[in-house]
Design a protein that fits this description.
The complex is a heterodimer of chains A (379) and B (139).
Chain A: E1 3-11, H1 21-27, H2 31-38, H3 42-61, H4 65-77, H5 85-105, H6 108-120, H7 126-149, H8 157-169, H9 173-185, H10 193-206, H11 210-217, H12 228-238, H13 260-272, H14 276-289, H15 294-306, H16 310-326, E2 331-340, E3 346-348, H17 359-367, H18 374-377
Antiparallel strand pairs in A: 1-2, 2-3
Helix pairs in contact in A: 3-4, 4-5, 5-6, 5-7, 6-7, 7-9, 8-9, 8-10, 10-11, 11-12, 13-14, 13-15, 14-15, 15-16, 16-17
Chain B: H1 7-18, H2 22-33, H3 44-67, H4 76-84, H5 86-100, H6 108-122, H7 126-133
Classes of the chains: A mainly alpha (379), B mainly alpha (139).
Chain lengths: 379, 139
């Protein structure tokens, strides 16, 4: 089943719930977007998922657990745009295997994130509850190791990096503070200064300090070309730029003179259809035009959440909420329609049950470090 | 922030919902909330699917309500409500939902349907329910 979404956004007519049709005409979601998405066949995504599944199984066979975790995560994300119960079931299976692989790789925080996606998208199973109990036990053990490290007199590079990564993977305030203390206690835990700098930047990103992270890494690119990968990745999440990888529908046309609502609508359209890189590109473009546009901030926050940048996403959501409240009588989502092969277009109006109409609920989920689940966010 | 309701009405709805199956409650939730403008009359399966999607969105909110004291040895009032039976549980939890203001503007019937679905899930163990769906909020 192909599911496509049309998004509408614009000034709200009178603050009483009636929409102004003339405004709607002006601000309508671009027609040229829904069509190409609507015509993309499910087969294309199914084939990609099958390929990822084969690669994941091969990685598991070779006991390359972290690689398998990554592949299963991508496998499940491939189904983000679909709402058929059988497809959601397949994605959930992927999340559960993903959690097991993360546990085998020694990353309980990654397992907890995958499990949050499993539990929030359907009913629990005894097997999944057991996996979560194991993950929580191992998570608690690592947290204790972090605390013990503060009284230790020596620490290996492996130990320190493992604990820092644990804090980055599950960025709760307490463990990020512990990670900071560990770095301060063992400032030369690795012989290679590039490794220390990379870990520092990784920690900064997890704490929402992305400019600091970029400042740490930029001078190191020449001496350590491997730094370029994460640096480019982080820049792409926060700044617009040409030649982005993973974009399906091409770059932003040169001299694009769309108004902000049109750009944001386009970004949300891509986001709702799980074309995250396309969405990010347009939403960042909107933020260049107006860094305080509430819905561009909201959309950007959702993209960051999808990439598990929880603290950065939370910061953006807070800004978006403040701006939306500031302009509550002026801006509001006008509507949202779902188009698929089996159902007529369905209109959704503001409703606290649907997270996409409720940035506050999104913030609550982000603060709980809940993994991003497309079909919970978008109807 | 709370929502006004008639306790007698709530009690009567709660007793009725206590008799329904999980699927019936999902369909009822879809009827009550009507999130979708159907162009043609939907099938029961379609209503059930939409109800399930609403329930998935409500469940983490309810988990915050019923599991919040779990790390301190469990939510005793919840344990008492579970053993008191369906009608009492649904009525008690619905009052908590309405009183908490966690779902602004919902009706007593929606709160009761959500409480009914919660009852179905916690019957097999509040601990497992909390393990699966409760995540304390903090960064």
């Amino acid at each position: 089943m192909v599911v496509a979404y049309g998004w509408e956004l614009g000034p709200y007519a009178n603050g009483q719930g009636d929409r102004d049709e003339s405004l709607k005409q002006d601000r309508q979601f671009p027609h040229d977007l829904t069509h190409p998405i609507g015509s993309m066949r499910y087969d294309m995504f199914r084939e990609a998922a099958i390929k990822l599944e084969e690669m994941a199984l091969a990685a598991e066979k070779e006991r390359k657990w972290l690689e398998a975790w990554n592949l299963w995560q991508r496998f499940s994300s491939t189904f983000d745009r679909f709402r058929d119960p059988a497809i959601i079931h397949a994605a959930r299976e992927g999340y559960l295997i993903c959690a097991r692989c993360a546990l085998n790789a020694g990353y309980p925080a990654l397992a907890l994130r995958a499990l949050s996606q499993f539990f929030s998208s359907g009913d629990s199973t005894p097997e999944a509850i057991e996996v979560k109990r194991v993950a929580r036990e191992r998570d608690a053990k690592l947290l204790q190791e972090m605390k013990d490290m503060l009284t230790a007199t020596q620490a290996s590079e492996f130990q320190v990096r493992k604990l820092l990564q644990h804090a980055v993977d599950y960025p709760r305030r307490e463990r990020l503070a512990l990670a900071e203390e560990i770095v301060n206690r063992f400032p030369r835990y690795a012989e290679n200064p590039s490794i220390v700098a990379f870990d520092r930047a990784n920690l900064d990103m997890a704490e929402g300090k992305w400019r600091e992270a970029v400042e740490v890494l930029t001078p190191l690119v020449e001496v350590g070309p491997e730094i370029n990968g994460p640096l480019t990745h982080w820049r792409n999440m926060m700044q617009p730029g040409d030649g982005r990888e993973g974009v399906y529908f091409g770059g932003i046309p040169e001299g694009c003179d769309f108004g902000i609502p049109e750009i944001v609508n386009r970004g949300f359209g891509y986001l709702a259809n799980a074309f995250y890189e396309d969405a990010l590109q347009w939403l960042l473009f909107a933020l260049v035009k107006d860094p305080a546009d509430p819905f561009a901030l909201f959309g950007h926050a959702l993209c960051l959440w999808q990439k598990n940048m929880f603290v950065l996403a939370a910061d953006r959501l807070r800004l978006a909420i403040a701006r939306i409240e500031e302009h509550a009588s002026k801006f509001r989502f006008l509507g949202f329609s779902r188009l698929d092969e089996t159902a007529p277009a369905r209109s959704y109006r503001f409703d606290p049950i649907y997270m996409i109409f409720n940035p506050g609920e999104c913030l609550s989920q982000v603060l709980s470090l809940q993994g991003f689940v497309s079909h919970l966010l978008f109807p | 922030m709370g929502v006004a309701f008639d306790p007698e009405d709530l009690s009567s709805i709660a007793n009725r919902y206590a008799e329904l199956s999980k699927d019936d409650l999902l369909v009822e939730l879809d009827h009550l909330i009507q999130p979708v403008s159907y162009a043609v009359a939907p099938s029961r399966d379609e209503r059930k699917r939409e109800g399930q999607r609403i329930w998935l969105r409500l469940r983490p909110k309810l988990a915050r309500l019923v599991c919040k004291d779990r790390p301190k040895g469990g939510n005793q009032s919840m344990a008492v409500l579970i053993t008191a039976g369906g009608g009492t549980f649904i009525s008690g939890v619905a009052k908590m939902i309405l009183g908490s203001g966690m779902l602004p503007d919902i009706t007593a019937a929606v709160a009761a349907a959500a409480a009914g679905l919660l009852f179905k899930e916690v019957q097999s163990g509040l601990d497992d329910f909390c393990e699966a769906y409760y995540v304390p909020e903090e960064i």
